[in-house]
Amino acid sequence: MPSLEDELFPSTPGKFKIDRNHTMNRQFHRCFASTSTMFLWALFLVALTASYLSFQSFVDSGSRYFTASWGGIQWEKQIRNSAQIRRSNGKSVLVTGAAGFVGTHVSLALKKRGDGVVGIDNFNNYYDPSLKKARKSLLNNHGIFIVEGDINDARLIARLFDIVAFTHVMHLAAQAGVRYAMENPHSYVHSNIAGLVTLLEACKSANPQPSVVWASSSSVYGLNEKVPFSESDRTDQPASLYAATKKAGEEITHTYNHIYGLSITGLRFFTVYGPWGRPDMAYFSFTRNILQGKPITVYRGKNRVDLARDFTYIDDIVKGCVGSLDTSGKSTGSGGKKRGPAPYRIFNLGNTSPVTVPTLVSILERHLKVKAKRNFVDMPGNGDVPFTHANISLAQRELGYKPTTDLATGLKKFVKWYLSYYGYNHGKAVN
Ligand SMILES: O=C(O)[C@H]1O[C@H](OP(=O)(O)OP(=O)(O)OC[C@H]2O[C@@H](n3ccc(=O)[nH]c3=O)[C@H](O)[C@@H]2O)[C@H](O)[C@@H](O)[C@@H]1O
C-alpha cells in the first residue's frame, strides 16, 4: 500500500526520494511533506482567489462597457409599474430604442390606450443625446419608464424578462442612417446584428416567449428598380452597409422563427419624418440650416435627375406598428424549444407617393417662410439610392394600414414642433 506521502510525493528519481529506514530522515520528510501540502493548498487557494478576482473584474468591466446603472428594489418597482396593463386584453410591451424617434411615438400610443410599456435605450451620441433625454422626460410624464442600457447587455435583458412576462417586444433600437455607415461601420454591426441576436436570444429563452415586431428598412430594396417596391421583390443588392445589416436582420429573425417558434414581424419603414424626429435626416437638417441662413446640399442622381423618397409621416408609421403588434400571433416555443410553426411576416410601411428632394425643400421654405440656399451636388457613392416607392397593399390587407398624411401636411406639423422645441420666435431662436 502506498503511504500518503507516496501518493503526494510519488517516488521519482531525485529530490523527494524517501529513505524509509532512517527515522530522522522520515520525520524530516513528514514535516517537509506537510509543509509542502500546506504550500500546495495555499497555492491552490491563491490561484482560486486570483481567478475569482479576474472573473469579477471581467464582469465589472463588461458592465462598465454597457454603462449599466440598473438594478435594485426601486428600479424593479418602476419597471413593474410601467409594465402595468390598464385595459382588458392589453399587452405588456418591451420597446427597445424607446428614446428614439419612432420608439417615443409608439411607446406613447401604446401607453395611451392602456398597454404596459417598458422602454430601453442606450442614449448613444449618434445625434444630440439631449433630444433623446427630452423624449425620455416626455415618456416619464406619461408613466413610461426607460431603462438606460444596451441591447447587447444579455444580463440586463434577461433581468427585464425575469421582472416582466412581456407579451410583445417592439424592437426599434438600431444604428440608423444610410451614409454614416461609411464613417462608423462597426456601430451597425454592434447594434443591428450583435444587439439583435442578444435580444432574440432573450426572447427565445423567455417563458412565455413574446411576439416580436421590429424595424427593418426600405433600404433593403437597394438597387431594385422595379416600382413600386413589393415585399416579394429582390432584396439581395444592398447599396449600403446599413441596408446590408437590416437585410441580415430579416434573415436572422427568420432563423429564430424557424428554430425556436418566435412570432416575427419585420417592418420596412420608408423615410419616416415628423415631430420629435431625427436631426441626422434631411428634412430636419435642412430646416436647421434654412433657419440659420446656411446653405443646404441637395443631392442629384445620374443625368441630374432629382432624388425622390416615399416620405412617411410618423403617425401613419405608429398605426402600422400598433396594427402589427395587434395581429402578430403568438410565439409557439417554450423552454427555448419550438412547439409549432409561428408567424413570420414582412410589411412595407410607406406613404406610397414619392416626392422629390427639391419639392421637400420648397415645402419647407413655404412653412418656414425663409428662402433656402441650395447647393446642388451629384449624389456621392455613399450608399444612397435614387428613389423609393412602397407598394403597401399587403400591409393594407393584413394590418388595415392606410396612411393619411401627405408630405405638406406632415411637414407643417414638424415645423410647428421644431419652432416650439428650439424656442424660435418669428424665425429667431430665443434660447
Ligand atoms: O427609408 C429608410 O429605410 C431610411 O430612411 C432614411 O434614409 P434616407 O431616405 O436616406 O433619408 P434622409 O437621410 O433624410 O435623406 C432623404 C433624401 O435626401 C437626400 N439628402 C440627404 C442629405 C443631404 O444633405 N442632402 C440630400 O439631398 C438623400 O440623398 C435622400 O434622397 C433614414 O435615415 C434611414 O434610417 C431609414 O432606414
From TrEMBL:
GO molecular function, one term: UDP-glucuronate 4-epimerase activity
InterPro entries in alphabetical order: Epimerase_deHydtase, NAD(P)-bd_dom_sf
Matching SUPFAM superfamilies: NAD(P)-binding Rossmann-fold domains
Residue intervals of the NAD-dependent epimerase/dehydratase domain: 93-327
Chief site of localization: Golgi
Superkingdom per UniProt: Eukaryota
Membrane topology classification: Multi-pass membrane protein
Alphabetical UniProt keywords: Isomerase, Membrane, NAD, Transmembrane, Transmembrane helix
Record Gene3D superfamilies: NAD(P)-binding Rossmann-like Domain, UDP-galactose 4-epimerase, domain 1
Catalytic activity as recorded in UniProt: UDP-alpha-D-glucuronate = UDP-alpha-D-galacturonate
Family of this protein: Belongs to the NAD(P)-dependent epimerase/dehydratase family.
Subunit field text: Homodimer.
Protein name: UDP-glucuronate 4-epimerase
